[in-house]
Write a structure and sequence with these properties.
Strand order of the largest sheet: 1-2-3-4-5-6-7-8
Strand content: 5-15%
Largest sheet: 8 strands, parallel, barrel
Bound molecules: flavin-adenine dinucleotide
CATH architecture: Alpha-Beta Barrel
Helix content: 40-55%
Shape: globular
Order of helices and strands: HEHEHEHEHEHEHEHHHEH
Radius of gyration: 18 Å
């Protein structure tokens, strides 16, 4: 099923993300987590591709398994910066053969201190989007950054680049995580003003582990509201209390987003089935639509 049809349906869409194992040794435990999340029957699940230095080898197989076994629609991420055109074709062929119809087209992170070089096959995600569109048959999503992408000189420049990506063929966007919904609402206003009309899925991360969030925030530049800092200060040393507070904070953000007419929320569940389960439980009536 094409995700655009799920995102545009009247029922609120709640989806979860998983990342594949870095080695074959961890495959089984991640497969179990993915299956436990799939059993919640989310609107869809997405599977990352080589994010945070991880592997890209299992993205298609994990996504295909979820879809086949649980009938949950899936989206496979695909990044291009360190790929060749041939490598991208092979990934698209594998997705097609496995019945995967949705792809999140990404540039991927550059090795630190480098800039895209003229000789590379890909420089920006928009080139990948155009290529997937030409390949045909996929619903294509793209990433967006309500606080501006970390490499961009200004938000206006980032939005102008985002517009090129949408014009290349993105049917919807998914945001990087944010912890203050006003940042999302403000971003939405600005992109609509710039003429970007596709749906924008809100990406929400339930923070359950302080170490992990410090690293992610250093990489992404995401702002932490004072209200959230108080939670980290107070409960950060107590894993169970932090998990409970992180889930409650994320739930409150999601309720506010749905209440304000946001059609779809994607939860960065980080392979944590119990977190996904709690969030889904907390929203059980709201997501009935
Ligand atoms: P782009 O859209 O290409 O943008 C990258 C930068 O280049 C921006 O600053 C943009 O303004 C600028 N730019 C774009 N086009 C042009 C142009 N024509 N001229 C000049 N500048 C331009 N990474 C992974 O490796 N694997 C994953 O699975 C993964 N999943 C993600 C999912 C989501 C929802 C998000 C938000 C990010 C994800 N990432 C993933 C991280 C992503 O790869 C990085 O944030 C990366 O740095 C940018 O990727 P992009 O696709 O947004 O790039």
């Amino acid at each position: 099923m094409k995700l655009i049809d799920i995102i545009e349906a009247p029922k609120p869409s709640l989806s979860f993300e998983i990342f594949p194992p870095k080695s074959s040794a961890a495959y089984e435990s991640i497969q179990k987590a993915a299956e436990a999340i799939a059993q919640l029957s989310p609107s869809y699940m997405s599977v990352t591709y080589g994010a945070g230095g991880g592997t890209s080898a299992y993205t298609v197989s994990i996504a295909a398994e979820i879809q086949k076994k649980f009938n949950v629609p899936v989206m496979a991420h695909l990044s291009c910066i360190s790929s060749t055109r041939e490598g991208v074709r092979q990934q698209l062929d594998a997705m097609r053969q496995n019945g995967i119809e949705n792809v999140l087209a990404l540039r991927g992170d550059l090795p630190s201190g480098t800039l895209p070089e003229p000789g590379w096959d890909y420089h920006y995600a928009s080139e990948l989007v155009a290529e997937i569109r030409e390949y045909g048959g996929f619903c294509i999503g793209g990433a967006c950054y309500p606080e501006g992408h970390i490499e961009s000189a200004s938000q206006a420049e980032d939005i102008a680049n985002l517009k090129k990506k949408v014009e290349a063929g993105c049917e919807f966007l998914t945001t990087q995580m944010f912890f203050d919904n006003n940042i999302y609402y403000n971003f939405l206003y600005k992109i609509r003003e710039a003429g970007i009309q596709v749906p924008v899925v809100a990406g929400i991360m339930p923070v359950t582990n302080v170490k992990q969030i410090s690293r992610i925030i250093a990489l992404s530049g995401t702002a932490l509201p004072q209200r959230f800092r108080y939670i980290l200060d107070r409960f950060g040393h107590n894993p169970e209390a932090m998990k409970q507070a992180g889930i409650a904070y994320a739930t409150e953000q999601i309720v506010d987003l749905f209440a304000n007419g946001v059609p779809a929320v994607h939860v960065y569940s980080m392979n944590n089935a119990s977190v996904a389960q709690k969030i889904q439980e907390n929203l059980s009536e709201i997501i009935k639509g």
